[in-house]
């Protein structure tokens, strides 16, 4: 079954989504899943990699983007899992230099679209040289990507957690509901819109049709 936030959001029930691409994926998983298993034990959090529908929108599969799903038992657990995942996704400094992986200087979170208005890049990056950029994803309406760029792992960890704290605060205040964390809601919206548009087109093409119930 695909992961979902709890129907009633409580501390620790708000999922954190981290997008992974390229070398970040094997770095996070490890040989035979060894690294991700260690992270689960280290953080006492649920950490899963979702890579295909219905767990994630089809567009992520097309773009070869994996989604790391994190849900901790409490804030401490979630923090440990998120910062640990950022560390693992970057890999050792020596390996980054050898592999010349430009993606290692970026961490990308996926957050509910409703959260974006509450983000202040300057405040989130305060005390660090990190930069933030928010972008949309094709066919994904209810979520936005937050790209965090920086050269130091510690800085990326700090800013990533600050972003998730904003989401946590909104969820606890009741500003975010369970559906806001469902990655498939966007795809469902698109499908329904296409269906309704097609249906409307058929009705417009046959304006004289009389509903059977009215006959």
Notes on the protein architecture:
The protein is of the alpha+beta class and 215 residues long. The protein has helices at 24-29, 34-43, 58-62, 75-90, 93-99, 121-124, 153-172, 184-205; strands spanning 16-20, 45-50, 66-72, 106-112, 131-137, 140-149. Strands 2-3-1-4-6-5 form a 6-stranded antiparallel beta sheet. A hairpin with a 2-residue loop joins strand 5 (131-137) and strand 6 (140-149). Helix 2 (34-43) packs antiparallel against helix 4 (75-90) and helix 4 packs antiparallel against helix 7.
How are the elements arranged and paired?
Blueprint: E1 16-20, H1 24-29, H2 34-43, E2 45-50, H3 58-62, E3 66-72, H4 75-90, H5 93-99, E4 106-112, H6 121-124, E5 131-137, E6 140-149, H7 153-172, H8 184-205
Helix pairs in contact: 2-4, 4-7
Identify the notable features of this structure and list them briefly:
215 residues; 8 helices; alpha+beta; single chain; 6-stranded antiparallel beta sheet
Short account of what is shown:
The protein is an alpha+beta fold and 215 residues long. Helices cover 42% and strands 20% of the residues. Strand 5 (131-137) and strand 6 (140-149) form a beta hairpin.
Q: Structural class, judged by helices and strands?
A: alpha+beta
State the share of residues found in helices, binned by percent.
Answer: 40-55%
**How do the strands line up in the largest sheet?**
2-3-1-4-6-5
Task: Name the assembly state.
Answer: single chain
How would you state the average pLDDT, rounded? 84
Calculate Rg over CA atoms: 20 Å
- What composes the largest sheet? 6 strands, antiparallel
């Amino acid at each position: 079954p695909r992961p979902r936030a709890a129907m009633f959001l409580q501390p620790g029930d708000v999922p954190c989504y981290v997008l992974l691409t390229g070398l970040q994926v094997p770095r996070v998983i490890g040989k035979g899943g060894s690294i991700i298993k260690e992270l689960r034990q280290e953080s006492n959090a649920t950490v899963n990699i979702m890579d295909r529908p219905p767990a994630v929108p089809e567009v992520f599969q097309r773009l070869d983007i994996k989604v790391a799903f994190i849900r901790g038992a409490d804030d401490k657990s979630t923090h440990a899992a998120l910062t640990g995942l950022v560390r693992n996704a970057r890999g050792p400094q020596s390996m980054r230099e050898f592999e010349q992986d430009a993606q290692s200087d970026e961490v990308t979170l996926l957050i509910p679209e409703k959260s974006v208005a509450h983000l202040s890049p300057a405040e989130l990056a305060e005390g660090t040289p990190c930069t933030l950029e928010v972008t949309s994803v094709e066919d994904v309406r209810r979520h936005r990507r937050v790209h965090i760029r920086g050269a130091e792992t510690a800085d990326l960890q700090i800013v990533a957690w600050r972003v998730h704290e904003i989401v946590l605060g909104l969820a606890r205040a009741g500003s975010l509901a369970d559906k806001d964390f469902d990655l498939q809601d966007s795809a469902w919206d698109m499908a329904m819109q296409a269906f309704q548009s097609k249906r409307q087109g058929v009705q417009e093409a046959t304006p004289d049709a009389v509903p059977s119930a009215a006959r």
